[in-house]
Amino acid sequence: MTEDGLNHSGRKAKAGASPAPSRGTPRPGLPGTASAGAPRWAVRLVAVGLVLAALNLRPAISALGPLLKEVRSDLGMSGTVAGLLTSVPALCFAVFGSLAPRLARRRGPVPVVLAGMVAITAGLALRPLAGGTAAFLAASALALAGIAVSNVLMPVVVKRWFPGRVGAMTGLYSMGLALGTSCAAAVTVPMTSALGGSWRAGLGAWALLGVLAALPWIAVLKDPVSRRAEPAGSAEARAEGGAPEGAFPAPGSRKENVRIRIGTSPTAWALGVFFGLQASAAYIIMGWLPQIFRDAGISASSAGLMLAVTMGMGVPLAFVVPRLAARMRHQGPLVVALGLCGLTGYAGLWLAPAGGAWLWALLLGIANCAFPVALTMISLRSRSSAGVVKLSAFAQSTGYLLSIPGPLLVGALRDAAGGWHAPLLLMTGLLLAQTVTGVLAGRDRVIEDGR
After folding, report:
1. Per mean pLDDT, which of 51-60, 232-241, 338-347 is the most reliable?
2. How many CB atoms lie within 10 A of CB 7?
3. Which of 73, 124, 211, 232 could form a disulfide with 207, with the two C-beta atoms 3.0–4.6 Å apart?
4. Can you tell me whether residue 360 is helix, strand or coil?
5. 448 vs 451, which has greater pLDDT?
6. 111-142 burial by CB neighbour count: b if 16+ within 10 A, else e?
7. Angle in degrees, 0-180, between the axes of helices 133-161 and 166-194, rounded to the nearest 10
C-alpha cells in the first residue's frame, strides 16, 4: 500500500503492469513528486507556494472574530447581520468554488491559484476602507472568492505535483492553514493596539501576507509545464504502469477523462455533507467562540488567544492526522474520536465557559481536525486526477452551501434567547450529524466505481 492510500480499495494491478515504486525508491526530481514533467525548481516552488497560500487562506476570517464586537459597533451591525457576516465565507466558497474546475481546465491550476491570491489581497486591502456594512461585505466577498477557488484547487495541486505524498503534503498544507488561522486570531488584537487601536488597521495589515503568498505562484508561471490546463495521466494510469510518474500526456487522455457521475455517487454526497457540517462547526467557532468567552467575562485579548489555541492545535495535528487518515482503510474511527472531543468541548462551554476555557479551546481545536481529514478523503475517494478535481469541487461547493445556515442561526438564536445554551444545543446536533456522515464518507470506496 502506498503512503497516500491510492490503492486502499484492494484493487489489483493489471497483468503485466509495472510494479509501483517502493517507498524507498528514488524518483526523478524530488522523491514522491510528479517532477518528471516539470523542473525541480518548479516543484520546489509549488511546495513553498502551497504553504504560503495555506497561510493566506484563513486570516480574512479568523482575524475578524476577536474584533467582531468593535466592527459591529462601528458599522452598526445587529447580531443577525453579524451572523450573516460569519455565513458569507460559506456562501462565497459554495458559489465561487464551483467555478474552479472550469477555470482550471481553461487556464491551469497555477494561474487560477495566483488569481485567488490576488483577489484575497485586494479584498483585505479594501475592507478597512468600508464605510458601511454593505461595502464591508462586498470587500469580504472579494477576498473570500479568492479563498474559494484556491480551496478547491489545493487538493488538485497536491495530487498533480505530489502523487506519491498525498498524506504528507495534505498535512503540510493543513498545517499552514491552521498556523495562519491561529496566528491571525492571536496577533490581530495586539497588532491593532500597536497600530493605533483601530480595527481597520488591524484587519488591513493582513493584506501584506497576500502579497507574499502570490510571489511563488508568479515564479512558477515561468515553467511552461506548470501552465498546462490538463494534468498528465491519471493516478490510476501511473499506478498501472500506463504513464511515468509526473508525465503530462496530451489532453483528452482516455484514462483522465473517464466519465464520472459525481451527482449519483453516495460517497460523494456523504463526503459533501461531512465537509459542510465540519465547515459549519469551524466557522461557528471562528466567528463566535471569542464572543462566547467575552460574554463569560473574559477579556478580548484573552478570548483572541483562546481562539488562537483552538486554531493552533491544527498546526501539529494537521500534519499528523492526514498521514494517519491516509494509512487507514476506513477513516470512520478517526472521525468518531474527533467528534467526541468536540462534544466534550461544547459541554464545557455550557457548564463552565470561563472556568475551563483553556481546556474547552484545546478540545475544540482537536475537533477542528475534521477539516484535514475531509481534505485527505477527497484524494483517497478517487483514483484519477480528473476525479479529484470533480470530487473536490462537488464536496466543497456542496459542503459550503450546506454550512451557510449554521453561523447565521447561532447569531439569531443568541439574540432571541439572550444566552448561549440554545446555540450550543444547535452546535451539538450539527456535530452529531457530522460524525455520522463522516463515518459514511470514510468507507473504503472510490467514486469511479459509482459508489
Report:
1. 338-347
2. 16
3. 124
4. helix
5. 448
6. bbbbbbbbbbbbbbbbbbebeebeebbebbbb
7. 150
Contact 322, 372 (CB under 8 A): yes
Q: Which of the pair, 107 or 232, is modelled with greater confidence?
A: 107
Decide if 168 contacts 3 (C-beta within 8 A).
yes
As a whole number, mean pLDDT of residues 32-48 equals 69
Residue given cell 460523494 in the structure block: 268
CA distances from 75 to 71, 131, 209, 420 (A): 6, 7, 25, 24
CA dist 63 to 45, 190, 194, Å? 27, 11, 15
Identify whether the C-beta of residue 425 lies closer than 8 Å to the C-beta of residue 118.
Answer: no
**Least confident range of 51-60, 74-83, 251-260, 432-441:** 251-260
Query: What string of DSSP letters covers 12-45?
Result: PPPTTPPPPPPTT---SSSTTS-TTSS-HHHHHH
381-412 confidence digits (pLDDT tens): 887 767 777 888 888 888 888 888 888 788 88
- For 90-132, the pLDDT digits (tens) are 777 777 877 877 787 788 888 889 999 999 999 999 988 887 7
What letter would DSSP give residue 205?
T
Task: Please state the φ and ψ torsions of residue 404, each to the nearest 5 degrees.
Answer: -60, -45
Q: Extract the C-alpha cell encoding 211.
A: 502579497
Cell of 426: 444547535
| Residue 11 DSSP code | P
CB atoms within 10 A of CB 343: 17
* Residue 194 in grid coordinates: 500597536
Residue 244 host element (H or E): none
- Report DSSP letters for 426-451, one per residue: HHHHHHHHHHHHHHHHTSS--GGGT-
Grid cell, residue 34, equals 510528479
Provide the strand spans (E) within 200-328: none
| pTM for this entry | 0.68
Sign of the dihedral defined by the CA atoms of residues 371, 372, 373, 374, in that order:
positive
